[in-house]
Amino acid sequence: MARTAREVSSTGLYAITVRTNEAVFEDEEIREYFSECCERFIGEGVKGLRFLSDKAEMLIYETERGISGDMKSVMTSFSRSCNRLLQTTGKVFADRFKSVPVEDAELEEECEAYLEGRGEVPRPFVSARTAAAKKAKPQNASPVKKTAVKKETAPSKKEETPEKPAAEEKPVTQKQPEVKKKRNDMPTWLL
Fold it and tell me: Which residues pair with 16 in a beta bridge?
């Protein structure tokens, strides 16, 4: 399945979510280094940044390189340094970064409030899986009670077999290894 093209923001402002494979952002030193990477490659374009244990959420204005170029620089630099700090190798990030264009000032204010810890999760930071789950379940639906279903099994019929007397058992003898017979018409090295 092909990826869909990244939506382009007319304002240049994006709500970005980056997921890691492990709970990397629990360490204060690593959070500080990620912030420094954002400052180094994006500069004044970082409007807000929030860390959870396994992801970082940001509000960013793109530079002249574009949002993909900006995030590539941040993620590559951070991955190398994070692997060096944790003395590991391999992927740090679980997948590509998610970006949602922020087009109006009201949504920008909601995102900034959320990143500062003053508001609820705005639409751009809600994952597609969570949004799909909310749409699928009606809000006025009552919880479904699960009832145990007992499987009925057919009664097993025991077939009666006559028992053999113990006296009829034969003694076990050891089997001798098979010896090849010598053939007169073949040389011995072929046997």
Answer: 58, 99
